[in-house]
C-alpha cells in the first residue's frame, strides 16, 4: 500500500478514532454508568463529572507518558547497559564519555552555543523590535527578519554553506574579502574555534525573528506615561531605551532567552549538515547521533547528559508556571 | 509620541538606515541561494550570484571545422565559433593556447606561426588560413565571450526528476499532514479539561506538561525506536505466528516494520502534544466564563460545550498550533532520520538534502539550491499567508 494512501487512512482512523472515543466514552458515562435520572440522578451527575475530566485527558496523557515521560526513565536505564543490551556496565558509559576528548569538546562547544546564541538572538531581536516599532514600513521589515523561522535548519544550513563557500565567485563572504582586502578565499568552516561562531550565527539568524516578535509585543505593552515622563525629564533616546524600556520588559527578555536556550540544546541539524562535527565544531546532539544505531548505551548516556543540562531550566519553568496559576 | 519634538527628525534617518541594513543582512543569504537556483552550473562558478543580472565574461574552448577550401596556395576554414561551441554571446578576445585564452583582441589577424593565421569577429565568425590541407581534426580555439544573463529552470527539472525530490516532497507531505492533524484533537480535549474542569491533581498535570515542554527529543529516540520495533514484531507474531520464520510481504498483515510512517506520525504526535496542550489551555482559560456557565445552565453536556462552544471559539489558537506543528514536522530531520526506514521510498526532503544530495552532488550548487527551494517553498508560503496566527501563537505561548 503506498504511504500516501496509508496516510489518508491514518488521518481518517486517527481523527475518527479520537472523535469516536470522546463521543462514545461520554455517552457510556452519561447513559449507562451514571444515568442522570432515577432516584440517584443528582449523585450520578456529580459522579459523572468527577470521572469526565479523566476521560478527556486520558489519550493526551497516555501519549505524553509513553512518548516523553517514559523515555526519560527508559533512556537512563538503557544508558547503564553497554552496546549489548544485556551487559550491565553501571556508570561505565558516562565514565567513558568523560574520558573522551570529543565529548569534552562537545560539552564546551554546547556551553558556548547556549551562551552566545540566546544572547545574540535576543540582542538583535530587541534592536529590531525597537527600531521597527515606529517605522512606516516596520511590518514589512519585521516580516522579512522573521522569515528564516519558516526555513528548515537543513535549508538554512545550505543557504549559509553558500554564503561561506570557499570561492570568491560563489561565497559572498569570500567575495567581500577579495573586494575589500584583496585576500585569498578561505573556508570559514575550517578556521579553528571561530568556525563555531560562524555556525552559531546561522541559528541566531533563524531565532532573531522569534525574539523580535515577542519583544516587540512587550515593548508595545509598556505604559506610555513612563516614557513620556522620562522625555519630560530630558532623558536621551538611548537612556529611555536602556533605563526605562528594557527594565520594564525584563521578564519577557528572560522568557525569550530561556526558550532559545532550550532550543539550542536540542539542535542537531546545523552542525550535522555544515561540518558533520569535524574541525572542532562538535556539539552534544550531533555527537549523540554518532552513536545512534551503533551503540545505544553511549547514545542514551549522551542524551541523558543533555537532559541534565536542561533540568534547571525545566524546574525554573515549572516554578514560574505555578506562580502564574495562583 | 510621534509628535514630541526632537524624537523623530534627528533619529529618523539613522533608524531607517539601520533597519535597511539589518533587513538586507537577513534576506541576502536566502536571495543568493534563490538566484543561484535559476543559474546553471557554469554560470554559478563563473561569477557570483550578485552579478547574475549582468553579462558575464566566460572562457570557452572549441575546435574550428576541418573542411578547408583551397584559396591560392593556402586553405581557408570558415565558420561560426558559437555554433561549434554551442554558446551564445559576444566574443571579446581569442587565442589558441589554454593558458592564454584571450591572447588576441577581437577583429585582429593572429599569426599562429608556420604560416597559419586566425581572425575572429565579435559575432563568432572565424577565418583560419593554413598552408597545408587541414587533417581530420580542426584547429583548437579558445575564446572569451560576454554571455548575457541566462536564467534557467534546468536545476528544478534535474532535482525533481533524477534528484528524486519529487518523491521526497510527497514523503514529506505524507509525514506532515497526519502528524499535524492528530495531535490537535487529542490536545484540545485535554486542554479543555485542564482549563475548565475541576478535578484533583489538575495543577500537577499542568506542571507536568510545562516540564515536558523542555524534555530534549534526543532522550526519546532509543527507547521509542526499540518500543516500535518490539510492537512491530509483536504484531507480526499476532497476525501470523509463523511469519518470523518465513517472509511475507503485505504491509498491513504480517510485515510490520519498527521504522515506518506510522511510527513517525505517532512520534511527532507525542512530541507535539506538550506545546499543543500548553498553547490551547492558555487560550481556553482566557475565554469568558459567562459563555461556559450559560451553556451549562442551559443544560448542555460537557461534550456539547466542548464541540459547540469551545472549539469554534478556540479557532485562532488551534490555527497557530497547527502552523507550528506543520512547520516543525515539515522541517524536521532528526525524527525522520530515526523513525523512518532508510531508502528513497521513505526519504523526506530534509534528509534527501542533508544525507544524499550534499554527499553525491556536493559541488553542484545549482542542484543544491534548487532542492533547497523545493523544500522551503511550502513553509514560506504558509508563513507569509498565515503569519498573523503564527505571531498570535508565539505570544500566547511566551508572554503572560
Describe this structure in words.
Chain A is mainly α and 326 residues long. Chain A folds into two domains: 3-79, no CATH class; 95-325, Orthogonal Bundle (MetI-like fold), CATH 1.10.3720. Chain A is built from 14 helices and no strands. The longest helix of chain A has 39 residues, at 41-79. Residues 1-6 and 244-254 of chain B have low confidence and may be disordered. Chain B has helices at residues 8-36, 41-46, 81-85, 154-160, 165-196, 202-212, 218-239, 261-285, 289-297, 302-313, 315-331, 334-339, 349-360, 365-385, 387-398, and strands at 56-63, 69-71, 74-80, 90-95, 104-105, 109-113, 116-120, 125-130, 140-147. Chain B has a five-stranded antiparallel beta sheet with strand order 2-3-8-7-6. In chain B, strands 1-9-4-5 form a four-stranded antiparallel beta sheet. Chain B is an alpha+beta fold. In chain B, helix 5 runs parallel beside helix 8 (261-285) and helix 13 runs antiparallel to helix 14 (365-385). Chain B has three domains: 8-51; 56-147, no CATH class; 157-398, MetI-like (MetI-like fold), CATH 1.10.3720.10. In chain B, strand 6 and strand 7 form a beta hairpin. Classes of the chains: A mainly alpha (326), B alpha+beta (400). At the A-B interface, helix 1, helix 2, helix 4, helix 5 and helix 6 of A face helix 1, helix 2, helix 5, helix 6 and helix 7 of B.
Oligomeric nature of the chains:
heterodimer
Radius of gyration of CA atoms of chain A, rounded to a whole number: 26 Å
Tell me the CATH topology of the largest domain in chain A: MetI-like fold
Structural domain tally of chain B: 3
Distance between the termini of chain A: 52 Å
CATH fold node name of the largest domain in chain B: MetI-like fold
- Note poorly predicted spans of chain B: 1-6, 244-254
Amino acid at each position: 500500500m503506498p504511504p500516501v494512501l496509508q496516510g489518508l487512512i491514518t488521518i481518517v482512523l486517527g481523527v475518527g478514532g479520537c472523535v469516536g472515543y470522546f463521543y462514545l466514552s461520554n455517552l457510556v458515562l452519561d447513559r449507562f454508568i451514571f444515568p442522570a435520572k432515577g432516584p440517584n440522578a443528582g449523585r450520578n451527575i456529580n459522579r459523572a463529572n468527577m470521572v469526565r475530566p479523566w476521560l478527556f485527558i486520558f489519550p493526551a496523557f497516555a501519549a505524553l507518558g509513553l512518548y516523553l515521560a517514559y523515555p526519560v526513565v527508559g533512556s537512563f536505564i538503557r544508558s547503564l547497559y553497554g552496546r549489548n543490551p544485556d551487559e550491565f556496565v553501571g556508570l561505565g558509559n558516562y565514565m567513558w564519555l568523560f574520558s573522551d576528548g570529543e565529548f569534552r569538546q562537545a560539552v564546551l562547544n554546547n556551553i558556548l552555543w547556549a551562551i552566545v546564541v540566546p544572547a545574540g538572538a535576543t540582542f538583535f531581536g530587541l534592536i529590531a523590535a525597537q527600531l521597527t516599532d515606529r517605522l512606516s514600513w516596520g511590518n514589512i521589515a519585521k516580516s522579512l527578519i522573521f522569515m528564516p523561522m519558516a526555513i528548515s535548519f537543513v535549508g538554512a544550513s545550505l543557504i549559509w554553506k553558500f554564503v561561506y563557500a570557499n570561492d570568491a565567485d560563489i561565497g559572498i563572504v569570500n567575495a567581500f574579502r577579495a573586494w575589500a582586502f584583496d585576500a585569498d578565499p578561505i573556508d570559514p568552516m575550517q578556521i579553528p574555534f571561530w568556525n563555531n561562531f560562524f555556525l552559531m550565527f546561522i541559528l541566531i539568524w533563524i531565532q532573531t525573528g522569534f525574539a523580535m516578535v515577542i519583544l516587540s509585543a512587550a515593548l508595545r505593552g509598556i505604559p506610555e506615561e513612563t516614557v513620556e515622563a522620562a522625555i519630560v525629564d530630558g532623558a536621551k533616546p538611548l537612556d529611555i531605551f536602556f533605563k526605562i524600556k528594557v527594565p520594564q520588559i525584563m521578564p519577557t527578555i528572560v522568557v525569550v532567552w530561556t526558550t532559545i536556550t532550550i532550543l539550542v540544546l536540542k539542535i542537531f541539524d546545523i552542525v550535522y549538515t555544515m561540518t558533520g562535527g569535524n574541525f572542532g565544531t562538535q556539539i552534544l546532539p550531533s555527537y549523540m547521533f554518532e552513536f545512534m544505531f551503533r551503540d545505544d548505551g553511549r547514545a542514551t548516556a549522551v542524551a541523558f547528559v543533555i537532559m541534565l543540562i536542561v533540568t534547571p531550566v525545566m524546574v525554573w519553568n515549572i516554578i514560574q508556571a505555578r506562580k502564574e496559576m495562583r | 509620541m510621534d509628535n514630541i519634538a526632537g524624537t523623530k527628525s534627528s533619529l529618523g534617518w539613522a533608524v531607517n538606515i539601520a533597519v535597511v541594513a539589518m533587513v538586507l543582512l537577513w534576506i541576502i543569504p536566502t536571495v543568493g541561494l534563490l538566484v543561484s537556483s535559476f543559474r546553471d552550473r557554469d554560470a554559478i562558478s563563473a561569477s557570483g550570484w550578485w552579478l547574475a543580472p549582468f553579462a558575464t565574461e566566460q572562457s570557452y574552448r572549441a575546435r574550428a571545422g576541418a573542411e578547408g577550401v583551397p584559396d591560392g596556395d593556402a586553405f581557408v576554414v570558415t565558420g561560426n565559433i558559437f555554433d561549434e561551441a554551442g554558446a551564445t554571446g559576444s566574443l571579446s578576445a581569442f587565442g589558441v593556447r589554454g593558458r592564454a585564452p584571450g591572447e588576441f583582441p577581437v577583429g585582429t589577424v593572429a599569426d599562429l606561426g608556420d604560416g597559419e593565421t586566425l581572425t575572429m569577429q565579435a559575432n563568432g565568425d572565424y577565418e583560419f588560413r593554413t598552408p597545408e590541407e587541414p587533417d581530420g581534426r580542426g584547429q583548437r580555439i579558445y575564446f572569451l565571450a560576454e554571455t548575457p544573463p541566462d536564467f534557467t529552470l534546468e536545476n528544478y527539472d534535474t532535482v525533481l526528476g533524477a534528484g528524486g525530490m519529487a518523491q521526497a516532497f510527497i514523503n514529506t507531505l505524507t509525514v506532515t499532514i497526519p502528524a499535524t492533524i492528530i495531535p490537535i484533537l487529542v490536545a484540545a480535549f485535554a486542554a479543555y479539561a485542564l482549563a475548565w474542569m475541576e478535578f484533583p491533581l489538575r495543577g500537577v498535570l499542568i506542571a507536568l506538561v510545562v516540564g515536558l515542554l523542555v524534555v530534549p527529543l534526543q532522550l526519546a529516540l532509543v527507547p521509542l525506536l526499540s518500543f516500535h520495533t518490539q510492537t512491530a514484531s509483536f504484531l507480526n507474531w499476532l497476525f501470523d505466528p509463523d511469519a518470523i520464520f518465513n517472509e511475507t510481504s503485505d504491509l498491513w498483515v504480517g510485515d510490520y516494520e519498527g521504522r515506518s510512517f506510522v511510527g513517525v506520525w505517532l512520534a511527532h504526535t507525542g512530541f507535539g502534544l506538550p506545546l499543543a496542550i500548553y498553547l490551547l489551555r492558555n487560550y481556553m482559560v482566557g475565554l469568558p466564563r459567562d459563555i461556559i456557565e450559560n451553556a451549562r445552565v442551559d443544560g448542555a453536556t460537557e461534550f456539547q460545550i466542548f464541540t459547540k462552544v469551545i472549539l469554534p471559539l478556540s479557532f485562532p489558537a488551534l490555527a497557530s498550533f497547527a502552523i507550528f506543528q506543520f512547520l516543525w514536522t515539515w522541517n524536521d530531520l532528526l525524527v525522520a532520520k530515526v523513525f523512518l526506514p532508510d531508502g528513497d521510498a521513505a526519504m523526506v526532503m530534509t534528509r534527501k538534502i542533508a544525507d544524499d544530495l550534499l554527499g553525491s552532488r556536493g559541488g553542484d550548487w545549482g542542484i543544491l539550491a534548487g532542492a533547497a527551494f523545493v523544500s522551503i517553498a511550502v513553509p514560506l508560503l504558509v508563513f507569509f499567508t498565515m503569519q498573523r496566527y503564527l505571531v498570535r501563537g508565539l505570544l500566547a505561548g511566551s508572554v503572560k
